[in-house]
Design brief:
Blueprint: H1 2-26, E1 32-33, H2 44-49, H3 67-77, H4 90-93, H5 140-143, H6 146-149, H7 158-166, H8 169-179, H9 186-198, H10 206-211, H11 220-230, E2 249-250, E3 275-276, H12 298-308, E4 322-323, H13 326-337
Parallel strand pairs: 1-4
Antiparallel strand pairs: 2-3
Helix pairs in contact: 3-8, 3-9, 11-13, 12-13
This protein binds heme C (HEC) (2 copies).
Length: 358
């Protein structure tokens, strides 16, 4: 029910975009002039309050946190036996050494063939709403078995995976600790993986220390970038809140012909080519950028927003040509660099190795 409401509000919100776009299409405005010393649209102190980090990670009532479940989820996430050929785990693509992504333009499946879209990071998703670039999954639980059984990704079957796991005494123990008995089911596998994923939270970055009052935590260029981001460059219209995403779907005018969320909700014109707003946390660790990996650097992303996007009926009404000076680009990029945290290395699990006879 809650998800239906979310989905509906996304549709309504995008439908408004659809109306506003008519005006934009008629008068493709001259680039909005920017100034590095632009004043913030609202007092800086109030603006900063919008970016405070939450104190605790939320877990849903139907899958509450337990240390045993998170520990099991960690093992499953990094276990290649969840793929048909037993060569690829979730962590192969969502690699913690690469900011939970893979450094590639698009993911590569277990048969070494490229997928249609880039691997998104599985970070700060405890606060996420709809999952995937096109929002086709309702929750982390709903998402988890998808890649296992997708032929182009891990190419396994659920009975095959359940029987592999059931043959390992250590897994039976882990399911016992997490769920009270040894039964191994796809629902339990999903619940454990989702619990682990919710524990993956990016740590405090220099930006957060600045928000908390340490003026020396970030430089002047980044401070000017923050003002641009929230003011004339209009980035915060979509990259809002401490995760820098509104969890909405927008067409930002990339050349890709992928229909994105439009394929999920055909008939809503403004959702054509609309993709989920990515988080900007640790963004400088995750090149190349966009759902198709088509943009190689943050400066190139800025050039896209300035003048590089396509005008088409589905383009978000929040997209305006921007007269970004070189200094503005430097400042916005400097600001984005301050969103990167130095997180402690994740301790990889020791995976079960012994199988029973027969
Ligand atoms: C072959 C590479 C690959 C493997 C293996 C893989 N993923 Fe992904 N993952 C992707 C890609 C690509 C997407 C985006 C697909 C799309 O949106 O259409 C994605 C999306 C996701 C998302 C949605 C993130 C968001 O922000 O919406 C989650 C969560 C996720 N994967 C978890 C997992 C889990 C759990 C596993 C293991 C069971 C896994 N992935 C295995 C490549 C991979
Ligand atoms: C209309 C909403 C919207 C606005 C305005 C907007 N963005 Fe985005 N941004 C998105 C969406 C949606 C994507 C992903 C698009 C895709 O892959 O198709 C994205 C992608 C990005 C990426 C790449 C992220 C990644 O993980 O690949 C960066 C960086 C970025 N935006 C920064 C900015 C900055 C800086 C501004 C202001 C100059 C801005 N955005 C304005 C919605 C928006």
């Amino acid at each position: 029910m809650e998800n239906q409401v979310k989905r509906l509000s996304t549709i309504l919100c995008r439908a408004r975009d659809g109306l506003a776009i008519i005006a934009v299409a008629v008068a493709v405005a001259a680039p909005v002039p920017l100034h590095a010393e632009a004043t913030p649209p609202v007092p800086l102190a109030i603006l900063k309050q919008r970016y405070h980090r939450p104190d605790a990670v939320p877990f849903p009532p139907n899958n509450p946190f337990s240390a045993a479940k998170a520990d099991l989820g960690l093992s499953l996430f990094f276990d290649p036996r969840l793929s048909g050929p037993a060569t690829m785990s979730c962590g192969t693509c969502h690699n913690p050494s690469m900011a939970w992504k893979d450094g590639l333009a698009v993911g590569v499946g277990s048969d070494a063939k490229p997928l249609a879209r880039a691997t998104p990071p599985i970070m700060n998703l405890a606060w996420g709403e709809l999952m995937m670039w096109d929002g086709r999954k309702d929750s982390l639980e709903d998402q988890a078995t998808g890649p296992m059984i997708a032929a182009a990704e891990m190419n396994a079957t659920l009975p095959e995976i359940m029987s592999r796991l059931s043959r390992m005494p250590l897994y039976r123990d882990k399911f016992q600790s997490a769920f009270g008995d040894e039964k191994i089911t796809p629902e339990r596998v999903s619940a454990a993986i989702a619990t682990f994923e919710r524990t993956v939270v990016s740590g405090k970055a220099p930006f957060d220390h600045w928000i908390d009052g340490d003026e020396a935590a970030i430089g002047d260029a980044a401070k000017r970038g923050f003002v641009l981001f929230n003011g004339p460059a209009n980035c915060a219209a979509c990259h809002s809140g401490w995760r820098f995403t509104d969890d909405g779907f927008h067409d930002i005018g990339l050349a890709s012909t992928d229909p994105g969320r439009g394929a999920q909700l055909p008939g809503v014109a403004s959702l054509m080519h609309a993709f989920k707003t990515p988080t900007l946390r640790n963004i400088d660790q995750r090149a190349p950028y966009m759902h198709d990996g088509s943009v190689k650097t943050l400066a190139a992303v800025m050039r896209h927003y300035a003048t590089g996007f396509l005008q088409r009926p589905s383009l978000s009404a929040e997209m305006h040509r921007l007269a970004l000076s070189n200094q503005d680009v430097t400042d916005l990029v400097a600001f984005m660099h301050t969103l990167t945290s130095q997180d402690p290395a994740i301790k990889l699990p020791t995976l079960p190795t012994t199988e029973e006879e027969g």
